[in-house]
Amino acid sequence: MRSTIFARAIAALALFGLVAQPVAAQSQGPSVLRDAETEALLQDLVDPLAEAAGLGEGAVDIVLINDPSMNAFVAGGQRIYVHSGTLGNADSVGEVQGVLAHELGHITGGHINRMSEGVGNATRITLLSTLLAVGAALAGAGEAAMGIMGAGQTAAMGNFLAFSRTQEASADAAGAQYLAEAGISGRGSLAFFERLQNYEFRRGISQNRDNEYARSHPMTGQRLATLREGYVADPAWAVADDAGLQQRFERVQAKLFGYLAEPDRTLQFFPETMTGVPARYARALAYHKDARMDLALAEIGSLVADEPDNPYFLELEGQILLESGRVPQALEPLREATRLTGSNPLIASLLGHALLATENPANLDEAESVLRAAVGRDHENPFAWYQLGVVYGQRGDFARARLASAEQQIMSGNPQGAMVNAQAAEAALPVNTPDWIRAQDVQLQARGMLERMAERN
User: Fold this and answer.
1) What is the DSSP string of 95-160?
2) What is the rounded distance in angstroms from the CA atom of residue 355 to the CA atom of residue 372?
3) 179 falls within a domain
4) Which cofactor names does the annotation list (predicted)?
5) Which of 25-29, 39-43, 182-186 has the lowest average pLDDT?
């Protein structure tokens, strides 16, 4: 009996070691989606809100997670993670801005940094109840000890959930303030919460107030009532969503659908009878995924004909041409897309890949130029580093090829491979040059990753 109580005591203490890192688990989940057009839209949606929050334009990054659920979260720093399902299920750009405003409330409130405060209070309750239970067990009162343990764990979890609900309510209020100061209507925010409430109803999640204390968030109905009162009174309530942003949102939404869904499902959802831009965009991706390249090129070609200066249509046209083996034809649209976007790193990386795919040594200088620009502006682009390594390898510059490989592997979560390549690069590079110093930096990063991995194991 005593051994059982001691085992449960240890488990109770370990419980809050896990709760203390609720967001860290996200790194083991779905993958990140990268797309130049989508990232540009999300940045334009969050920038006015970040300005209203006092953070400044460009201060907050948005990362799109490949997950069909409606969710968003922050994990420290000035970065918001948005599930693809949030974009896919929203009807308007205002809904997405409502979500972003709420997450900004978590950032400005320092809620991730303060998580340890809530965990600490809960841990102290657990520790006290554990010590009391051990004392009762040693005195021979086994049943009383078990009761103390159970009550302590319940109280600790209740304390932590109450702390979480307070943070969520605070983020709601801050988000409403940022929408108002940015002149954005709260109608989208309310619509998203209503959508979330309907989702909860379908999942059988109780809206009974008796269930409130077992939740990490306030009741959705309660949040709706509180927010509606403030939103309706705000001068921005009647302001319509920005028409240009809404148009871009609908295109991105269709693009994501075409990229993520099976081709048959996309073609059912966007049949050929639908002739609008979003439907043609989605079908181009569906045909591309289904290796029906002529149909894909016909759809994207019609979009380029309508909007010849749209860099994202040109990017997709170049990608389809490249991946259908028409490499020389892919260069012109990719060069133009790169020019029109001011050398967007993701598009420039694709151009660099196309230049290498020509297998023409005359293209190596241009490939190196666009790829170096890409890695200089985008610090999370392993594909560009891989392509740059190919450039160096073809030139016989194996030291820099190994350094590029090390950069690519550190970004891809392979610290052991990064360490090996960085050490080889350091040994071959001229001492005290920037690349030699960078090889040492990559080794430090890799060593730190390996140590953290060892600690987790």
Assistant:
1) HHHHHHHHHHHHHHTTTTTTHHHHHHHHHHHHHHHHHHHHHHHHTT-HHHHHHHHHHHHHHHHHHH
2) 14
3) yes
4) Zn(2+)
5) 25-29
* Per-residue pLDDT reduced to its tens digit, 11-31: 433 333 333 332 333 334 568
What integer pLDDT is reported at residue 298 of this predicted model? 97
pLDDT in tens, 241-284: 999 999 999 999 999 999 999 999 999 999 999 999 999 999 99
- 178 lies in which domain range? 2-238
Residues 379-402 have pLDDT tens digits of 889 999 999 999 999 999 999 999
Kind and range of the H or E run holding 77: none
DSSP codes, 353-417: HHHHHTT-GGGHHHHHHHHHHHHHH-TT-HHHHHHHHHHHHHHT-HHHHHHHHHHHHHHTT-HHH
Q: How many CB atoms lie within 10 A of CB 103?
A: 23
φ, ψ for residue 247, nearest 5 deg = -65, -45
Contacts of 277 (CB under 8 A, 6+ apart): 251, 303, 306
Residue 217 domain-assigned?
A: yes
- Displacement of CA 243 from its chain's centroid (Å): 25
101 is a domain residue: yes
Distance of alpha carbon 66 from alpha carbon 85, whole angstroms: 8
> In the predicted model, what is the mean pLDDT of the chain?
82
30 three-class SS: coil
CB–CB of 134/74 below 8 Å?
A: no
| Cα angle for residues 413, 417, 419 (degrees, 5° grid) | 100
Q: Three-state SS for 73?
A: strand
Paired tokens of 144: 């009383």
Does residue 295 register a pLDDT over 90? yes
The DSSP 8-state label assigned to residue 242 in this structure reads P
To the nearest 10 degrees (0 to 180), the angle between helices 142-181 and 220-233 is 20
Separation CA 258–CA 225 (nearest Å): 36
- H/E element holding 16? helix 2-19
* Rounded CA separation 230/101 (Å): 15
Confidence of residue 203 (pLDDT cuts 50, 70, 90): low
| Structural domains in the chain (count) | 1
Does 309 fall in a domain?
no
Strands 72-74 and 61-65: unpaired
